[in-house]
Design goal:
Largest sheet: 6 strands, antiparallel
CATH architecture of the largest domain: 3-Layer(aba) Sandwich
Radius of gyration: 22 Å
Shape: globular
Number of strands: 15
Mean pLDDT: 93
CATH class of the largest domain: Alpha Beta
Order of helices and strands: HEHHHEEHEEEHEHEHEHHHHHEHEEEEE
Helix content: 25-40%
CATH topology of the largest domain: Alkaline Phosphatase, subunit A
Length: about 425
């Protein structure tokens, strides 16, 4: 995206190179952004038994309490963050909400323009263009007063490695529109993704394996923040290479509901408290505070499967430990799907790659990361197995690294659909 990249260089901004994902797909990666909780904690606290998210304490409620208007828009109907395999909201969650429009569009005028049927159109417009129109129509509202907005595009860019080139000019024009309408003068904008590409030929490479866990995050901020809150912005810049997650973005957004927290005296006091906590520091740290260099994945709430604070040494796929780990991964999948009789038992077809995990911390147990292919269905999976004295355990989730299309048509459970091959 050279046009967008060059445009951002003209604005005060920070790009975060240590931004690490915390979950398998969109939902568990963005739940911490909205709530400060992980997926399990959120569902236990306010979703289980409720059949909707209306009672959840999401970040837009904090902004609403601080006097902000709120808006939320996605360019999808089927794959909505809170609607894919979930019940969504019973009541409108924000003041301005695009989903009712997308429901009508999807019901009456949808057609697809790609072989995978992942990019949808209405009339002559892709769904993303409807999202852009919503943002443009919000501009007068954005100029009226304080506004918290969450805009999310997933179609196209979610599934195709080269699709970002088609967004380059659109995103540059979007930023220029916000700038020319003086919105960026008083707005902090996060340009972000939730994870890297999860499927396809690039994902099957070593680099693709790493980049899946290191998505995009750029913060664009008004110039006057540097003058008014110098220590906060200095910390923001220093955190460009710190290990951070969406838990930290949640804490950062909460700070923005009360700018007094960014005063130099407050930053000094909060920084002292943060360092006094040491290894007991919070999982979510505002990016206006200095994120300690001692922070590791466990302290940041990053599962081992997604942690980039480790290196991988390739090992022979015929090594005994490689084969043991591969068999254990497949056996684990079969255990999970055993209660779904319509799902076929999977067999290990091939050990594609194997790696030993090298950590900075001294650890006695051997950990092996394997990539396997199974049959039926030619599913490709990736998992980390820890070897204990007399047993093996998984360290993190087992990930599917190739698309499964309609292979799992016979189940309606997003937790196991990627593992299920239906007859």
């Amino acid at each position: 995206m050279p046009l967008l990249g060059a445009y951002i260089e003209t604005l005060p901004h920070v790009e975060f190179w240590g931004y690490n994902r915390v979950g398998r797909n969109t939902y568990p990666n963005l739940v911490p952004l909205f709530s400060g909780l992980n997926e399990t904690e959120l569902e236990s606290e306010c979703y289980s038994g409720q059949l909707n998210y209306d009672k959840c304490d999401f970040i837009w409620k904090h902004f609403k309490s601080a006097g902000y208007n709120t808006s939320y828009a996605e360019d999808t109907f089927i794959g909505g963050i809170f609607n894919y395999g979930k019940w969504g909201f019973n009541k409108k969650p924000t003041d301005f909400y695009l989903r009712p429009v997308m429901l009508e569009v999807d019901k009456y005028t949808r057609y697809s323009i790609d072989e995978q049927e992942d990019i949808h159109c209405s009339g002559s417009r892709k769904y993303a263009e409807i999202l852009y129109e919503f943002i443009f129509k919000m501009i007068p509202q954005l100029n009226k007063g304080s506004q918290f907005s969450f805009f999310w595009q997933s179609q196209g860019v979610h599934d195709y490695f080269g699709y970002s080139q088609f967004l380059d000019k659109d995103y540059m024009k979007l930023l220029d529109r916000l700038r020319s309408n003086h919105i960026l003068k008083n707005t902090m904008l996060f340009l972000m993704s939730d994870h890297g590409l999860r499927y396809g030929s690039f994902r099957s490479t070593y680099q693709g394996m790493l980049e899946e866990s290191q998505p995009l995050l750029i913060a664009i901020y008004p110039k006057w923040l540097e003058t008014t809150y110098p220590k906060a912005i200095t910390n923001l810049r220093k955190n460009a290479h710190s290990l951070i997650t969406t838990f930290d973005l949640h804490a950062t957004l909460k700070d923005l509901t009360n700018l007094n927290l960014l005063n130099d005296s407050q930053i000094d006091h909060r920084s002292i408290l943060l360092y006094e906590l040491g290894p007991n520091m919070s999982r979510g740290i505002s990016l206006f505070l200095p994120v300690p260099e001692s922070r590791d994945c466990e302290m940041a709430g990053i599962p081992s499967s997604f942690c980039l604070c480790q290196t991988f040494s390739q090992m022979d796929t015929t090594d005994e430990k490689s084969e043991q780990a591969a068999r254990f991964v497949v056996e684990s999948i079969n255990t999970w799907i055993s209660s779904y009789r319509q799902c076929q038992i999977l067999r290990l077809e091939d050990v594609l790659e194997a790696y030993i995990l090298n950590r900075k911390q001294i650890r006695q147990e051997l950990e092996v990361k394997v990539r396997v292919q199974t049959s039926p269905g030619a599913g490709r999976f990736e998992g980390i197995v820890r070897f204990l004295r007399d047993s093996m355990v998984l360290n993190g989730p087992i990930l599917r690294t190739n698309k499964y299309g309609n292979q799992s048509y016979c189940v309606d459970d997003y937790h196991i659909e990627m593992y299920c091959f239906c007859l």
